[in-house]
Amino acid sequence: MTEPDWLKAKDPDGMLRQVGHRLSPRQWHLLACAVARRAWDVLPAGPPRDALDWAERHPGEAAGSPEAVDFLSELEPAARAGAEAARQVQRQIVLAADPDADPDSFRPDDARKTNPSAVLFQAACRAARNAVDEAAEAVPHAAEAVAAVLAQRPGPAQLARVRQQVVEATRFRAGASLYASLALRLKDRGDEMADQDNGRNVRLRYSAASQAVGREEEITNYRHNDLLRDMEKADRKAVGRSLLDLVGNPFRPYRFEPGWRTSTVVGLARAIVAERAFDRMPILADALLDADCDEEAVLRHCRGTEPHAPDGPAHGRGCWVLDLILEAEPAFFAGEPLRGGAPLARPPARGRIAAGWDGLLDALRAGAPADPDDQDD
């Protein structure tokens, strides 16, 4: 991988092969947390979000700690309750399309009188039920991502597990929106057809309604089948951006003078990390300027004006500028710039499944490693 390839951040697995051997457990852990946060909107409020926030505040202290065990014991019931809550919220969104009705109750042929709009109502009902089911299905995957952050040791296997579960959570969430949109479109079209029903040309209108349903369902199913590919693409982009924020550009050394660590600069950096107040990064750039900092890469990252990041940086805990200021990763930043790269000792295999809820808890309580790489195949 060349420096321009790194800065494009389109191949996070290749990036990890370049720097994975240099990342500390803390950095691996914070990267996993950043990925898990992509499913934040799917996570129910309460223990799942609290657990992820705690894990991010205590990198390296999660696996095996009493706090992690306590959070894990709360995750499964919270995920079940959250899935039911998501089901109810989605049900309200598609309520007009009768998600709880039996699709067969919308009969297109009743007492020898054909009802052209019934086929639209029937399809709307099916789509509404799919929307409700997929909204609920997203929640346990998001919770599993948090469980991996809490229970597995930081490293490639943990990150692979978190990424897999976040892709599934976001895929199901997108699927719910897709089916909800279909359900409401079909319901509106059915209402319109019913309002315009004059009892004439029944067979022609019934055929038109059936064809409309076929087209709409075909398009939606096509888009639904593409969701996994789309979410995996979004995952690669997000992980690449998070890596850029975590380690910067490892092909070039960064200069950071001790005199730039004024009380104002250090205080701002600590507050940004503690409060996740990354909107204050431009203020940090001003404070660094006041301290006579002239390292362009540092200032650009704080301001979000890096030429290789037109969408702006994906700031998070573990940001390389904040770590430089707070001296959080001295060994990493003291390393030589990359002139090649060593591969990971064991590249993460997609789909390696962590232990279930009970297995995770039992392993942690027994003091055993809760990492699938440590289990016998």
Give structural notes.
This protein is mainly α and 377 residues long. It folds into 2 domains: 13-243, no CATH class; 253-336, no CATH class. 63% of the residues lie in helices and 1% in strands. The protein has 15 helices and 2 strands. The protein has a two-stranded antiparallel sheet with strand order 1-2. Helix 5 runs antiparallel to helix 15 (357-366). It is elongated and about 85 Å long. The chain starts with a helix and ends in an 11-residue tail after the last helix.
Number of domains: 2
- What is the string of helix and strand elements? HHHHHEEHHHHHHHHHH
> Helical percent range?
55-70%
Number of strands: 2
State the end-to-end CA separation: 33 Å
Largest sheet entry: 2 strands, antiparallel
Give a short synopsis of this structure.
The protein is an all-alpha fold.
Indicate the topology.
Elements: H1 3-8, H2 12-19, H3 25-36, H4 47-57, H5 66-93, E1 109-110, E2 113-114, H6 118-151, H7 156-195, H8 202-225, H9 227-247, H10 263-275, H11 281-290, H12 296-303, H13 320-326, H14 330-334, H15 357-366
Antiparallel strand pairs: 1-2
Which keywords apply here?
single chain; mainly alpha; 15 helices; 63% helix; 1% strand
